[in-house]
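Record format v2
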Amino acid sequence: MRYELYYWPEIQGRGEFIRLALEEAGANYIDVARRHGGESKMFALMQRARQKQPPFAPPFLKVGNLLIGQTANILMFLGRRHGLAPRSEAGQLWTHQLELTIADFLVEIHDTHHPIGSGFYYEEQKKESKRRTQDFLKNRAPKFLGYFETVLARNKSGFLVGGRLTTPDLSMFQVVEGLRYALPRAMRRLERKHSRLVALHDRVAQRPRIKAYLQSERRIPFNQMGIFRHYPELDR
Amino acid sequence: MRYELYYWPEIQGRGEFIRLALEEAGANYIDVARRHGGESKMFALMQRARQKQPPFAPPFLKVGNLLIGQTANILMFLGRRHGLAPRSEAGQLWTHQLELTIADFLVEIHDTHHPIGSGFYYEEQKKESKRRTQDFLKNRAPKFLGYFETVLARNKSGFLVGGRLTTPDLSMFQVVEGLRYALPRAMRRLERKHSRLVALHDRVAQRPRIKAYLQSERRIPFNQMGIFRHYPELDR
């Protein structure tokens, strides 16, 4: 069955976490809004009055008659279907727990440049962004990265869960990539203390399907509209 | 089997969403950190070096050897076990999707009084809180509440999912309660446009087990330390 991914066509954003899972799975999918007329199709679907289970926001995934929203929820679904999650209930709960912790991290990363609200431009909250980013770099980023480093250290396989790649490995690859783009100077310093995360990032980047994807036009470059944005003044 | 809930003993916070599910289920549980010596037990568990699957933060739930973290993840687990979620995979994904959207809403509610970071006191970010709360009340709260109102309107049973109570109904009860405490003036205005949500709130409050719980000492009163805090200057 062909998956239909619905997400903003011009950014990596949260959709990228789904794309990485679909690509690693070698799944048959289309990135609807990036096709001609696809963005209006996405809006139409969101506003469809007889949609009994409407998504709150993109990304969402259409699988036959099923419409699944919320990034971590979609990843849980795909993980089970494509061997990117353990088979046991306990293993799946743990995998999802990590994915939800990454989702929390993403909110805080986004809010470094939008502390007052996503409805305001960055330029309208520049001073506040500096303060929030300082706190983020001093306290929050080390806490989150340290947590995942600990999980890797205790698991010992080089992956976050069990002995094989699961969706949170793909997601952490994207977080490392994104932080390198957004806050390169700070990230260089942070990486020194998180060598297992860097090794995980490199391992994911070398997976044949991920490698091919990253070199393809399907991978949207980082830019100033997504979660990860590079404002040099925030990168002390 | 007896559940052990681990959460900060002095606040409702995210732990409250778990308490409501445990109470509605009539489950056998202890609220560990509220017992004598329980808070140190919680810290010990979090810092235990041989814990292979450590939680990032409370709340977490111990079920035999299983340690489950992340509020929405715990609710998914409890929902399946106690008939507070549908049986079908599609139904469970939808229920969880709603729970994750509530989790997103909670972050935004919390950040109205902590836009610059949870490491700073409210008094250190009062001006920024006013700006963020204005945007929250004008744009974000109507968007989230409107979404859940639409879901109720389309589902028609008076519950969010199917024809029976599920965990997101309990969680939305708590959101309405919390917003009434935190921003009573604004909430009075908002409620006029969200009568189905108010009716859901009232329906949950009348469930015999929830009613008994709310009147018991197990229910911690709202205060100025949790997600929902009442600062009159933010409640325009």
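The mean pLDDT of chain A is 97.
The CA atoms of residues 122 and 173 of chain A lie 26 Å apart.
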